[in-house]
Amino acid sequence: MFKYIVHRLLLIIPTLLGITLICFLVNITAPGGPIEQKLAQIRFSGAEGGSGASSVGGGETTSENNYGVSEEVLTALKKQYGFDKPIYVQYLIWLKNVLTLNFGNSFDSGEPVIEVIASRLPVSLQFGVISLILTYLVCIILGVMMAVRKGTRFDLTASVGLIICYSIPSLMLGILLKVFFAGGGYFDWFPIGDLYSDMYFEKGFFGRIWDRIHHFILPLLCYMIGSFTVLTQFMKNNLLDVIKLDYIRTARAKGLSENAIIYKHALRNALVPLITGVAGIFGVFLSGSLIVEKLFSIDGIGLLAFQSALQRDYNVIMALIFIQSVLFLFGRLFSDLVYVLVDPRIDFS
Predict the structure, then answer these.
(1) DSSP letters of 170-207?
(2) Residue 62 confidence (pLDDT)
(3) Bridge partners of 123?
(4) pTM score, two decimals?
(5) CA 176/CA 185 separation, integer angstroms
(6) Environment class of residue 192 by beta-carbon count within 10 Å: exposed (0-12), middle (13-18) or buried (19+)?
């Protein structure tokens, strides 16, 4: 097992290099970068000030670079943003800085990228952890109940409810929740924006807990709605398949109670396929949903990624890609280790 872990850790390095290299090339070569945006600001300022395109010594005009500014300005901008070097040199410099967790400064705000991400991290982390725990907790319990009561009214009702949940897009659900329950014309039961109220720090312990729950309910519903159906049906079908195996029939023939058969013998093996999703456990650190965060005015990672992409903030984009890739790759390794813990028959050595 130790050799397998070392082998997987070594494979993470070339995989990570491949991911970051491709994303770096896409970002750098995409049009509308920070230089183009800065040049647009310069042209706009020049138009407002009534000045035309600048020229530089010897009658050199701005038309020579097709940007409407002098070559000196263009060269200075490239040097400022680090684009004056070949692409492969830029990537090697970026890679060297990443080894010391230096992702540079945001082109938009000028703040260190790590601080920009850290300011949004608590928001997405809270929603990610809570939604992951609640999703698996509810889906496993509900899936087991549906499998045990297969063909009953409970199974039919739960199946119909899950199909309805699966068919509702997060955007539509969020709009409906805001209209009906967040002061959109019907009920004003839940607040919109932030994670707590203005009086949060003046409340007691239980008051703060309720205040958080009050702010979390609607966004969490939108975060989780799409995961319920797939995981619950997956859990139900896995358990039904395990119940049909020979060793379960043997356990029944020995006179074991149905609860012992289901919860002691069958459930553990039925959980093995669900462990694949455990790979995303580290992904909750940077989980975010643009739709949910935009609808409920939450400053999370999802909104940050979207805004950075619009503004071509390469440093923030690459930092998010790098961190998310590392978390995902280590999550895959973690899921393999959990496989072994749940089912000792699995051996990766």
Answers:
(1) HHHHHHHHHHHHBSSSS-B-S--SSSS-TTGGGS-HHH
(2) 40
(3) none
(4) 0.77
(5) 11
(6) middle
Which pLDDT score, from 0 to 100, does residue 9 have? 86
In angstroms, rounded to a whole number, what is the distance separating the alpha carbons of residues 23 and 2? Answer: 32
CA distances from 320 to 19, 197, 314 (A): 12, 29, 10
Distance CA 314, CA 135 (A): 34
Residue 68 one-letter amino acid: G
Q: pLDDT tens, 273-311?
A: 777 666 666 666 666 677 788 888 888 888 888 888 888
Confidence (pLDDT) at 45: 65
Residue 90 has pLDDT above 70, yes or no: yes
Q: Could you give the CA distance from residue 333 to residue 327 in angstroms, rounded to a whole number?
A: 10
How many residues are given for the chain? Answer: 349
The per-residue DSSP string of 66-127 comes to TSSS-HHHHHHHHHHHT-SS-HHHHHHHHHHHHTTT---B-TTT-SBHHHHHHHHHHHHHHH
* Mean pLDDT, residues 3-24 taken together: 88
- How far apart are the C-alpha atoms of 316 and 281, rounded to whole Å? 22
Per-residue tokens: 210: 């309720």
Query: The tokens 């097709």 sit on which residue?
Result: 66
Interatomic CA distance for residues 197 and 228, integer angstroms = 29
Contact 144, 235 (CB under 8 A): yes
The pair of structure tokens assigned to 145 is 């109940």
The Cα 132–Cα 150 span in angstroms is 26
Give percent above pLDDT 90 in the chain: 7
What pLDDT digit, counting tens, does each position of 106-122 carry?
887 888 999 998 888 88
